[in-house]
């Protein structure tokens, strides 16, 4: 999917605020950051009390990419947290992306994508491990709220992945529910690699496997087939604070 190929178009939801996004060129350039590893500083405008709302997978990716560019260059806007927005949100929510991320305290989605109230539906589990509650939560966002984008967000130096690597190598006996997490991550572990490379590669491969499983979920697959939804993998680097796409 190319985020560069398609222009933003307003969604068709009646009553939803539709404002033409400014600085489209800058936003498209930033879209490349999440999509292809490039990117530069700049941002799409976010005029109005709570809009505009990205209505397509490509527009949602551009918004996240612009927000991460603000975050990593210390130009955060902390949008959508004003008194007006809080009141506007009493009547309902129209988040534009689901972020399935790790529980790690260093990777809060609203911060690393510089988003605010009502913008992201966040689902977090250690190592982005899927279970019925996680799948149901994501399906709620996609099916009930018509969210056009799901991002599986892994991260550098993930403790859950590290524990899974150690357990897979027989170095550690994990208790109870931690063992469940490690078993879920284990298929991403390549034991032919050295230890540090093994953890880093497992972070990336785990994102790929989780993304593939999600994309195969019938409710999601049907929407992907019609272009209404994209499920993408991405990684957050603690060292650079940059989010980049995993393919
Ligand atoms: Zn983690």
UniProtKB/TrEMBL annotation:
SUPFAM superfamilies documented for this protein: beta-carbonic anhydrase, cab
Co-factor: note: Binds 1 zinc ion per subunit.
Keywords: Metal-binding, Zinc
InterPro entries reported in the protein's UniProt record: Carbonic_anhydrase, Carbonic_anhydrase_sf, TAT_signal
Protein family: Belongs to the beta-class carbonic anhydrase family.
Role summary: Catalyzes the reversible hydration of carbon dioxide to form bicarbonate.
UniProt name for this protein: Carbonic anhydrase
């Amino acid at each position: 999917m190319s985020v560069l190929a398609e222009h933003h178009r307003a969604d068709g939801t009646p009553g939803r605020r539709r404002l033409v996004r400014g600085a489209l060129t800058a936003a498209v350039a930033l879209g490349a950051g999440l999509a292809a590893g490039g990117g530069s500083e700049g941002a799409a405008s976010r005029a109005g009390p709570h809009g505009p709302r990205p209505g397509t997978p490509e527009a949602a990716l551009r918004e996240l990419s612009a927000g991460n560019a603000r975050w990593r260059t210390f130009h955060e806007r902390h949008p959508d947290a004003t008194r007006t927005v809080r009141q506007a949100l009493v009547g309902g929510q129209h988040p534009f992306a689901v972020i399935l991320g790790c529980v790690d305290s260093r990777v809060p989605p609203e911060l690393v994508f510089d988003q605010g109230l009502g913008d992201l539906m966040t689902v977090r589990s250690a190592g982005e491990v899927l279970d019925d509650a996680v799948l149901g939560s994501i399906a709620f966002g996609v099916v009930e709220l018509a969210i056009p984008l799901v991002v599986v967000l892994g991260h550098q130096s993930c403790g859950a992945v590290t524990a899974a690597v150690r357990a897979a190598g027989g170095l550690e006996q994990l208790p109870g529910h931690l063992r469940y997490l490690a078993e879920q991550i284990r298929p991403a572990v390549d034991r032919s690699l050295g230890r540090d490379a093994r953890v880093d590669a497992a972070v990336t491969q785990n994102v790929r496997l989780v993304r593939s499983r999600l994309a195969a979920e019938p409710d999601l697959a049907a929407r992907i087939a019609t272009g209404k939804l994209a499920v993408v993998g991405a990684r957050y680097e603690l060292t650079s604070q940059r989010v980049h796409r995993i393919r």
